[in-house]
Each structure stands twice: as C-alpha cells, then as structure tokens.
Fold each of these.
Amino acid sequence: MELKNKKIAIDDFMSERKDVLKTWVTGKDVTNFEDGVKYQSTISADKNFAKKLFEADRDGITLSQPRAGVALIEEHIELLKKLQVECDLLPTTIDAYTRLNRYEEAAVGIQKSVEAGTSKLNGLPVVNHGVAACRHITESLDKPLQIRHGTPDARLLCEISMASGFTSYEGGGISYNIPYAKRVTLEKSIRDWQYCDRVIGLYEENGIRINREPFGPLTGTLIPPFISHTVAIIEGLVALEQGVKSITVGYGQVGNLVQDIAAIRSLRELSHEYFRAYGFEDYELSTVFHQWMGGFPEDESRAAAVISWGAAVAGMSGATKVITKSPHEAFGIPTAEANCQGLRASNQMLNMMRDQKFPPCKDVDLEVELIKREVRAVMKKVLELGNGDIAVGTVRAFEAGVLDIPFAPAMCNSGKMLPIRDNNGAIRVFDAGAVPLPDDVLTMHQDFVAERARVEGREASFQMIIDDINAVSHSKLVGRP
Ligand SMILES: CC[C@H]1O[C@@H](n2cnc3c(N)ncnc32)[C@H](O)[C@@H]1O
C-alpha cells in the first residue's frame, strides 16, 4: 500500500467504500451516503458536538463528559438518560469485540445480554445494531453524542455511527493502534483512519460539521506530555488533510499540577503552530483533559479525590472538556449511579474553578518551553524520515524508535523509552531509547531523576518506575520506597 498524507480522491473513496460496507450485513444500511447527510441535517444545532465544543472554547468553559456503553439499545438509552442530567456531552463507548471487527462474537454477546437481562458486553456494538436502532439513541437523548472506542480499523463503525446521528468520533491511526492492538501495522491503521477522516470530510463538504478527537492518553501509563502531544498533532494534521474542520486534541492527566497545566497550554499552542505551518487556518481547535488514566484506589472516597483533583486541574488548565472517571474505576465498568457520582464531583469542582483562573506561573512557563522543545525535536525527525510526508514519517519513526510509546502492546512500537516521575511527580525520561531529544534536554531529565534518587537514597531504577505505576492506587503520586 502506497501510504501518503494526501486527501483521498472521491472516486477512490467511493470504490473503497463498496468493500467497507460489505464487511458486515448492516453496511447495507448506509449504501446511500446522502441518506446519512439528510439524517444529520435533522439533528438540532444544540445536539451538535462540534458546535458545543466551539462555543465552550470561545467562552472559556470546561465541559464534562463520562465514558459509558452497554450491550442493548434500550439499556444504553436508559443509561445515557441518567448521565445526561449530570454532563454536558454524552459518550457511546463501543464494546471490545466491535473494536476488533469481531461482529460474530458481538452478536453472541447481544444474545447473551438479552437472555441475562443485563449487559454482557463492555460497550455498545453499534455495527451489529445498525443505523435504524442507533438513530433511536440519538433521537432519545438531549445532549450531543460521541463514539468512543479503540478500533484500529474503524471504517464501517464510522459509516454507521455518522449515518446514525453521532456528531463526534474519537480515535486515530496511531492512538487506536499502538495502545490497543498487537499485530496491526501502522501503514494499515493510518490508512484506515484516513478513510474515517475522509468520511467526516465528506459530511463537512455536505454542510455537516463532525468533531474528531485523537485519543490523547495512549497507554495512560506515565506518558510524557511531549509523546502524546506529538501523536495528537500528527493525527490532527492527517484529519485536516482529509477535510476535517473540528479537532479536539487530548492529554491524559499525570498528576503534577505544573506539568498538567503546562501540558494543556503547550498542546493548544503547538497544535496551532503545526496546523498553521501546514497551511490550515479554517479549523476549530479544542482540548480535552482526561482524568487520571492509571491505576485507581479501590476505596471510593480516595477514588473520588482522584476524580476531583482531575476536574480541578482540568478547570485550572483551561481545557475545553474533561473526561471523567467514576469511584468504580478500580473494579471495572461503573454503575450508572457511580458514573453520575464521578460527574457530580467533577462538576462541583468545575463550578468552583469557573470564577478563577490559575495565576501566571514561572514554573508553568518553563515546563511549556521544555515540552515545546521536546515536541519540535521529535516532529523535526519524523518529517525528515518521511521526506516531508507526516504519515510516511510516522511509520518510519516508529520503526526507528524515534516515536516510542511507553508500555504499549503493539509489535511495531519499540518500547525502549522509559518514563519515571521526578521528585515533584512530573513525568521525566529515565531512558530515551532512540527518541531524539536534544542533549541539554536529556541532561535536564537526568538531573530531575538524580535529584529524586538522592532524596530517596536509592538508585533510579526500573523498580522506581514500577513504584510510580502503583503509586496512585496506594494513595500517593510519587512511588516512594
Ligand atoms: C479508556 C479506558 C477507560 O474507559 C472506561 N470504560 C471502558 N468501557 C467503559 C464502559 N462501557 N462504561 C464506562 N466506562 C468505560 C474504563 O473504566 C477506563 O477508565
């Protein structure tokens, strides 16, 4: 396959579309693209995800959104009706079988859920349910709806979701491959996601604005901001090339206040820097802050504290949206009430933050500059490897370990770069692997780590990293001995 970061010609798209729609029986529901456009044009403006984000970003408001999804349509509607009372934006989380295009097994899961009278899947199998059933969801709810998942080949899911009236689609060719799959090549996942972005570009050409959100947190395990920013910017550029106009770039909270605030500010500024450098001007940018994505304390009060801290920092950072967690995070899929508890705690914090702004802070400025230097160094190398083509450069950057996502299952990820917390809990680089950080930046990271090792009276080691991975579950931030 000849991968290139080029808008897919409409004839090539329509030809590929015929094959995509054959991959499951419900593909026939979307044979006529215009039918999806016509249905989308019936969605009221106050239920358009892109519009809601644009207005919130303009007004400096941080919106709240949970994750949620169950197997059966009526059950899912009932769940979202409870959640929409407490949130600004609604999800529909897709089940694990659908994420791997295993629709036969999703069908079994639906059957078992019907027999059991409760969900036996960890999300909604949208492809199996098809357009008519999913339109019932979007018609039954009052808030904008987004598809959230983890699908390397999300082409059919995209077609059916958009024709069903969802107005936002999460994911990307890197962020839904590397953390979620083992044997999928980046050439294929990036190309399949160009197709998804082209679907949304085609809705845009027909006057329907659909929001796209690259998956910010990646593996959610001690991810340095510069790594997730680089992936978000690349996926944003790929989406813009396919005609997407509404982009939400994201970041997973690490827990150090200065770094988290600097992360959101630098993410916004760097996205504009690269999008404009590529000649894009007429896009709408927003940011999303994911509450702590690592291990959670089992105790529900302690979990509520983690959630509240995430909401407070999201508000302080000026993120357009915060993705909330629930006090059941340590156990699994939350009940509706637990999900609502996470939303209520988050909204209380957002409301109390709304009347105040985080003051100018030298430490935040320094962290912003450090993140910018790191992202620019990696992006420069990615573009060199691709001879200017960001998609080709991305594939080669992962092959060379120039882009390297910690603790990822994907075989195409080299997994040599190791993160670690410094003495204040910020994420630093313990081993850069082949990630091309400037020498003086590398020295700064080594100094940060050496300071912690001195304070703790132990050598920086892999054990220290393990301690950091477990720290929050044990009610700490830094994994002290
Ligand atoms: C990205 C991982 C996050 O998604 C959450 N998640 C995954 N599936 C569901 C689900 N079906 N309902 C609610 N939360 C969910 C999970 O708790 C974790 O916090």
Amino acid sequence: MTVPATAIYFTAYDQLKAFLCGRALTSDLYAPMVAGALARLGTVTVISPLELMRTKLQAQHVSYRELGACVRTAVAQGGWRSLWLGWGPTALRDVPFSALYWFNYELVKSWLNGFRPKDQTSVGMSFVAGGISGTVAAVLTLPFDVVKTQRQVALGAMEAVRVNPLHVDSTWLLLRRIRAESGTKGLFAGFLPRIIKAAPSCAIMISTYEFGKSFFQRLNQDRLLGG
Ligand SMILES: N[C@@H](CCC(=O)N[C@@H](CS)C(=O)NCC(=O)O)C(=O)O
C-alpha cells in the first residue's frame, strides 16, 4: 500500500475501534479484529481499481492518455464491476490479515504496556508489537497469498494466448488442489520471503503512525494549555 492509503486505513481503524469500544456491538477484546477487518475491506475496495490501472499501465505499456479509453472499453465490455477485477482474491488475503494483525497488535501492546508505569505506548513498543503481529498474520494468511499468485499466473497465461477465461476455480478448490499436489508445504510456499517483508514493513508503518499520532496529540495539548 502507498503512504496515503496506509494513513487512511490506519485512521479508519482507530475511528472504527473507538466507535465499537464504546458500544455493546462487540466485546472490547474483539473490537480491534472487527475494526481492522472493516477498515481493510474499505481500503481494498477503494484501492482495487487504482491497482488495476497501475498494472495495466505497467504490463501493457498503456500511456496515461490511452488509459481513459482503456477504462471506457473495459466498462463498456464488462460493466463497472470489471474495474474491481481481482478484488475477491485480494480481499480474501488482506481482510483476514488485518483482522489477525490488529487483534494480536493490541494484545501484544497491552502485554508490553504491563511492564511500564504509564499507559502510553512508546514508539519502540509499537515497533515490536507491529513486527510480532505482522509475522503471525503473514504466516497464517500465506495460503491465501499463494492462491492469489497462482490465480494471477493462470489468468496471465490465458490472456497471453488470448483465451477468455470462462471459469475460474474457487479459492477452496485451489487450496485443496495445492495441498493434494504439493502437501501442506505447498500452501506455505514463500514462507521466509513473506516474513522478511512483512515483519519490518508492519513494524515501521505502525511505529511511524503511532509516533505521528502522539506527536500531534502532544502539539494540540500544548496549544490548548498555552492558548
Ligand atoms: N498486502 C499484504 C498484507 C500485509 C499488509 O497489509 N501489511 C501492511 C503493513 S502491516 C502493509 O501495508 N503492507 C504494505 C503492502 O502491502 O504493500 C500481503 O502481502 O498479504
């Protein structure tokens, strides 16, 4: 995700969590999970058409000027829904990722907070909590990442020989096929690179966000007290 998308996603998460925590809709333990899933669902939905355009620009050497015509033809041929092509597999990977990520993040953070007298999260703590929860979420959602990649490769191969995919295998079917062909190991292909990418990126993103948030909170507080 890009920086603006991540900022919107994190802010949406905070707002949703605050909304859910004050109400009896979910227990406070599960509020981060629900807020994380909803915030990610919204983000994936907004980002999905932009990602599609980015890949079109990169893969088919379409210029910005041709892009408008490209989008119009796609909409005329496949309707508005075609702009959200690939939304399903992306959401299936990213929504469970976020649900797991925020649930564990808040859990690890409160556990680490137990060692501190003040109830304020330090940047270091959010870095550690983000890294740990990102690793757990990345491992548990790895099978969905494998399925997403295999689907993209299959679709790309069909497009290359100009065959219109009439039927796309369901995620469940693909998961079962991978398991039958390559065993559980196949579902967790790319384990190490995924962790090497997820742990630092989650740790850096969340600690930067928490740092910015507390910086501006302090600034506002000082301003209120001063003025
Ligand atoms: N899209 C990710 C989900 C992981 C994720 O969302 N990580 C957050 C940080 S905790 C992120 O924004 N990563 C950057 C990215 O996805 O490009 C995946 O590969 O499964």
